[in-house]
Amino acid sequence: MDEEKVIVFDPHDCTGCMYCMTACSTYNNGATSLSKSRIHIVRHEGHAITKITDEDDLIFDVITCQQCDQPYCLYLCPALAVERNDDTGALIINHDKCVGCRMCMVGCPFAAILYDLDKKQTVKCELCGGDPQCVRFCASGALQFLPKNLAHLPKRDRLARKMIQLRIRPIEEKPF
Amino acid sequence: MAVRIEKDENRKRFVVVGNGIAGISAAYTIRRYNKEAKIIIISEEPHPTYSPCLLPNYLSGEISRERVFIRELSDYSKDNIQFITSEKVMTLDRERKSVVLQAENIAYDKLIIATGSKPRIPSIKGIHRKGVFTFKSIEDADIICRWQGRTAVVIGSGPIGVEASLALKRRGYQVFLIELLDRILPQVFDEYPASLIQDVLKENGIDLANQERVIEILGGEHVEGVVSDRRKIECDTVLLATGMRPEKGFVEGILELGKLGGIKVNDRMGTSIQDVYACGDCAEAQSLIDGRPILSLLWHNARQQGEVAGSNAAGIPRIYTGSLHITVVDVFGLKAVSIGNIGTGLGTDLEIIEVRRNGGYRRLVLSNGVLVGVQSINWDENLGIFLAAILRKEKVKTYQDLSSIRQSRLNALKQFPFGRKLTLRYSQRVK
Amino acid sequence: MSIPAGYAGNVLIITLDDQKIDILPIDKFWDTYGINPRLWLGGDGLITKILWEDFSNAVEPFSPENEIIIATGPWTATAAPQSGRSMLGCIDPKTGGFGSGSFGWFFPSMLKYAGFDIVIIKGKAKRPIYVFIDDRKVVFKDASHIWGKETGETVRMIREELGERYEGEIRVLSTSVAGEHLVKYSPPCSDGTSCPGRTGAGAVMGSKNLKAIAVRGTGEIPLNDPRGLLDSSYRAVKTFVENEPMIKLWREHGATTSLGTAMDWPISGAMLAENRKEADFPHLKNVGCLDCPNPCYHWLQIKDGKYSGLRHLGGHMTFLTVCLRNLGIQEFGEWIHYERLLQELGLDPASFSMAYSWAVECFERGILTLDDTDGIALKRGDSDLICELARRIAYRQGKLGNLLADGVAEASQKIGKGSESIAPHVKGKEYIQRDVKVQALMWSLGALTSPRGGDWLRHHNVWELAFMPGKRDAYPKFVGKTCAEIYQDSLKLLDMPEELKKKIFGDSGKVDMEWISGTKGKALFSVWTENLVALFNSLVTCMFGSATMFLMVGFGPTTYSDILNKITGWDTTYDELMKIGERVFNLQRLFNYRLKGWDYKNDTFADKRAYEPAQMGIFKGKVVPWNEVLREYYSIRGWSERGLPTMEKLKKLQIEDLAEGLEEKMEGGD
């Protein structure tokens, strides 16, 4: 319980390869897709859509369940089907109880819950039982799996290195 | 999180009256913070906790009766919670700090009242004929399931009335839905979005009438028909869906009540008597939007109030942020959602923004520039964003400010200063 | 035949004339074309077989008879690493023979998620149109208002018109103005950034009045062993990332930087690497295709100079190479601007730069006069001039623009006056190196043997280059090891049977100056790499998987086999897969023979200076023994002295039935 880990994302390192999405769908659905992945990479590729302007930038962000400590999906569920997994701390959907009313989707501020047409129930990120595949396949390290109280460290470390580089040059490149 | 509990708190006695979602939320919250305390839930009903929200699904035949229950009898003892069934609390002895049952008194250190709500029975002549039902408890649902009627008149088009109509239609009834006010679901939808829902109901064979009052229920021992101020309808079933009222029961005259008829509570779910809390449908808490007293008799409010009450009772201070209307109705595939306040009756300084796209409709209700409500017909993508905006009391100028989670995330990222101030020297010619 | 897992399951055949759509289940399609998927996989394998069946006689590439074939493979769009690639094939406008090219970004994945493994486009539309593949629904849209627009604008307009629900949902493969004007080396472009560069298919699209193909796909790819695939992929990527010597540089700095560094090129390499440390996101960020752990696209912004403020996604090797080698452009901003311009106009950088380079030489020799060049004094190093000429070529403006738009081979035939013997092409297609003798032996050998004509991308060919003195000394600074050490490690990791390694590198198995300076083993190594390339172009996956260009110690046939088996449920082996590569390569050779009559006589450089003594490189002072090595090459391949596959070889590859009726011609004389 103390070591509850969560998925942490840094947009600086994301290359937009979306391996997290193909790994997620493959692991959870047994088939590869982007549309049925429980983690979603938001893409902005200005270069290809407009003539390049100053505002255009190549940016990626992630939408996935934040495993909230005060989750609206859990509060709104009339069947008490949204439960907390005691080992991983993840919010899971009990598929014996879910009636497919989609109230959890109405409540989620991150649009992180999907509706599965085959199951006729909702599905969401459940941290793959403690070994999230998206993190496993993220080659750039943009996605990490860290205890909540250490979630700030990768970003702080990166910024710290950058700040040092500004002050002292040259610098030995250390692998992170 | 680790909670420090003083020694003498260990064997505190917590009594919860009521076995609905508010009651068990309170009980389980207490157990989470206090492993040793004695927790007793007292219920009037003979069975474990169920979800009234699922009764329409049971009535329509979509789910089995077992699925309506969210607890089994054995579940309570797993968390060391004593569960007393089929017992009515007669009164509260505040000096001796105990609740009085028929055959015994049960002492408490902290008491939580979660007695829920009961259907309002309108004063209509003939209301006691056989074939007239309410639709609140599982017993109600069982009886209607066993009833073999053919034509039903549903009085009241709130969410319960609408869901009951859909369920009865599914069971093969011919359904007449009669509403007193000028539109369907009048507490949760403004006129235009309500009209969209009405159209779908009518297209699918539900006879719907607004601004009609039922005057008498005809028949002998059994219901044979209904007379309104407009017409006479032959039927064998009448379902009353004219609203719910807080069930104050044994605390009447003992606890201070609010203006709307519920047990008055502060933002810690505390009542007028120390160590006594109230939560759920029986309590009159404050609205999240404007802080005024409100009766929002909904599942998620009850649940949250239960947790807050339990938390405070267990010694962990917690504030209730307020009740919020959230209603979702699925009408023959058309999904209608209402969050927060509607426009009607909200007074001045009110702004409405309407958006239509691909057959979907959304209505934003702003009060002094702040988002206080959203209604959505056939367009429920990313509604959570609006819920979050209402909770944050977000100032909104146009619809685009909230248009999608992707856009809002990208906007945020784009504004983030990614070190553009650094200047670089790139052009370097070859020697 | 049931459809193995890994395939989306459908083939889309579009006939543009009457806007006809045929959707065939892929097993029916395989039956029609006599394809056993285990023999051909997908990608180039299928393109080769389809072209073989559909084109027994030569066709005019700009006639409606030409076809455009987009072929993914069972690897594409799965959770395998680097699964974002597809091949695109047609009859090449310049050579008239086999043409195909690889492209990526996200169009290939979306096509498979839409449910299609292959798209075949036939005929010619009456008016400019584009095709929208919306999952299984295929519609034709009017493109007259988009015709004439350049790449970026085209993509933007189509995406807006079709109404993306979110950015990146719809992917577009489009042709640009050069394709519309039938410039023979104009490639189509996917999302404005990834092109099958050497096909000329953009011009073929132009000739068909097909402006673009857009796709949206929301489906999924069935897998035989999903968890097994994840484990195999993870192992493969982890091994690659931990062992490949160049990988650290590549992942840190991207493709061009790492290669430029190792090659010690002036406007990239050390300078970019240093600058990158100072550069802040987003000004030098690596991005790439689906599931790629070592992305190669750079997101760049020029900070000062004439083109300050220009942003660009790309920074690819080819553009850099041609700028430095063929065009004399040496400034960073000019290089990026050039790349951006060519993507916008739709021009293959290699063919364009070679055409330009040839024209400069002709001008310097007086073969081209100011009259021929519309008054332009051609020279290298002037980026404005070069860009102006690129525009003229794209629009076929003026005498020179129109002349060079047909490519070096045709242009030199038109001009004559000895320009043919300084024209840098093989079989009608330009290669990339100015002086093939310097990059002998393996790099330039590929130009002779590639089924596409002049080329460098159909085999891995750079082991020799890295030992050139300048580069040899640059390595250690960035990679931490000497060149010899890196190559020694690579040899250990190279996924090749030991006996073969001994045959190529000798018993002592050292990759050193001795090996580099000789010819021993080079032909055999070429053959092996050609088969490997044909293999991964049939899977379809990325060439940068098997190597970060230099070292080939990434994914080899063993890894490919392991992962492919998890996808499909097959029990392929190293040998089986390499045989597929060999089969595809052989059929491509046979196809070119049947269609164009190409044999050993065509394995020649049009530029006769290739046969003079070299001034630099390992053959300094000597003539490069091209024909000798070619004979060794044919023999290793099991080909006749005519340079054609023998019936025995075809039997071994199980395609002898295809050569029915050809045996006599093949074995006979001219």
In words, what does this structure look like?
The complex is a heterotrimer of chains A (176), B (431) and C (670). Chain A is an alpha+beta fold and 176 residues long. Chain A has helices at 19-29, 46-49, 72-76, 103-107, 133-137, 153-167, and strands spanning 5-9, 31-32, 40-45, 58-63, 82-84, 91-93, 114-116, 121-123, 143-147. In chain A, the strands form 4 sheets. Chain A has a two-stranded antiparallel sheet with strand order 1-9. In chain A, strands 3-4 form a two-stranded antiparallel sheet. A two-stranded antiparallel sheet of chain A has the order 5-6. With 431 residues, chain B is of the alpha/beta class. Chain B has 3 domains: 2-118 and 246-313, FAD/NAD(P)-binding domain (3-Layer(bba) Sandwich), CATH 3.50.50; 132-242, 3-Layer(bba) Sandwich (FAD/NAD(P)-binding domain), CATH 3.50.50.60; 341-416, Enolase-like, domain 1, CATH 3.30.390. Chain B has 9 helices and 26 strands. In chain B, the strands form 7 sheets. Chain B has a 5-stranded parallel β-sheet with strand order 3-2-1-7-19. Chain B has a 5-stranded parallel β-sheet with strand order 9-16-10-11-12. Chain B has a 5-stranded antiparallel β-sheet with strand order 22-23-26-25-24. Chain C is of the alpha+beta class. Residues 278-283 of chain C have low confidence and may be disordered. The chains are: A alpha+beta (176), B alpha/beta (431), C alpha+beta (670). Chains in contact: A-B, A-C, B-C. Chains A and C meet through helix 1, strand 2, strand 3, helix 2 and helix 5 of A and helix 5, strand 12, helix 8, helix 9 and strand 13 of C. Strand 2 of chain A pairs antiparallel with strand 12 of chain C.
